[in-house]
């Protein structure tokens, strides 16, 4: 059964409470562990008044729960219990007609009753398909966040900027080393090896990659991706930090907020 949240958002609701505790996976596939089916971008762009869907399709699950900026979306257990296919439907979060208030980070938690996996998607809502100024979107898969590494390892960053279709071919990104001396273009560095690459997606997003192979001590610190578009600039600053454990770093996510919410309900 469909449920309308805040008039404009069509949410196909879910079975299960919070992290899926209490649900039972009846027909496991393979090892029975939950896994996402589709690879998606961590940032989705849509326009006011349009419809939009966010994908959390998975296998081996009995519960899917959605959160907006760490707050669980409303759900109706009686309606869900009447529909045996409700868990299947709840993999997709559908917006019938977007508003600016729908812009947020949406997290889905998929559970098989024992193990959970999660995915966070940033939804950016714009007024139209032409951007006057470039907008920093973040990264695909959390790869435009601070990293930790050991000497000799390779570090990669991938940062995304929305520029709009009309300005896609006229926009470009440059990478800089940022330190006490100021900003030095990556290609000017003689003592640090770097590789950069620029591509696009969705005919409106610039994707800029920086790779620092065989890291040395002088590569630790801040790096900046600076985009030039339509006479405007936007930037993303990331850092490479020495790893105290040698295991590398991980990006922070909304899952920490959600876990705090679980603890309050226990």
Automatic annotation (TrEMBL):
Residues 1-22 form the signal peptide. GO terms for biological process: symbiont-mediated suppression of host type I interferon-mediated signaling pathway. The keyword Oxidoreductase does not apply. It comes from the Eukaryota. Coiled coil: none annotated. Keywords: Disulfide bond, Early protein, Glycoprotein, Host-virus interaction, Immunoglobulin domain, Inhibition of host innate immune response by virus, Inhibition of host interferon signaling pathway by virus, Interferon antiviral system evasion, Signal, Viral immunoevasion. Residues 34-124 form the Ig-like domain. It holds the Pfam family Ig_3. InterPro entries: Ig-like_dom, Ig-like_dom_sf, Ig-like_fold, Ig_sub, Ig_sub2, IL-1_rcpt_fam. Counteracts the antiviral effects of host IFN-alpha/beta and key IFN-inducible proteins involved in viral RNA degradation suxh as host OAS1. Acts as a soluble IFN-alpha receptor and thus inhibits the interaction between host IFN-alpha and its receptor. Interacts with host IFNA1. This is Soluble interferon alpha/beta receptor OPG204. It comes from Patiria miniata. The lineage of its organism: Eukaryota, Metazoa, Echinodermata, Eleutherozoa, Asterozoa.
């Amino acid at each position: 059964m469909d449920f309308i949240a805040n008039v404009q958002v069509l949410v196909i609701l879910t079975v299960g409470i919070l992290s899926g505790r209490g649900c039972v996976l009846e027909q496991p596939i393979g090892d029975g562990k939950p896994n996402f089916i589709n690879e998606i971008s961590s940032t989705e762009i849509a326009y006011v008044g349009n419809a939009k869907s966010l994908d959390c399709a998975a296998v081996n699950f009995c519960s899917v729960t959605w959160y907006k900026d760490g707050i669980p979306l409303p759900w109706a257990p009686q309606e869900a219990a009447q529909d045996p296919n409700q868990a299947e439907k709840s993999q997709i979060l559908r917006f019938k007609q977007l508003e600016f208030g729908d812009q947020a980070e949406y997290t889905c938690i998929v559970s098989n009753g024992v193990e959970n996996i999660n995915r966070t998607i940033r939804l950016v809502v714009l007024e139209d398909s032409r951007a006057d100024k470039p907008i920093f979107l973040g990264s695909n898969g959390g790869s435009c966040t601070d990293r930790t590494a050991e000497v000799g390892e390779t570090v990669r960053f991938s940062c995304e900027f929305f520029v709009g279709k009309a300005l896609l071919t006229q926009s470009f990104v440059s990478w800089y080393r940022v330190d006490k001396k100021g900003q030095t273009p990556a290609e000017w560095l003689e003592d640090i090896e770097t590789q950069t690459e620029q591509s696009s997606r969705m005919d409106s997003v610039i994707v800029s990659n920086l790779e620092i192979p065989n890291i040395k001590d002088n590569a630790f610190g801040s790096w900046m991706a600076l985009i030039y578009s339509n006479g405007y600039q936007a930037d993303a600053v990331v850092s490479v930090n020495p790893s105290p454990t040698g295991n590398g770093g991980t990006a922070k996510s909304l899952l920490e907020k959600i876990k705090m919410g679980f603890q309050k309900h226990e």
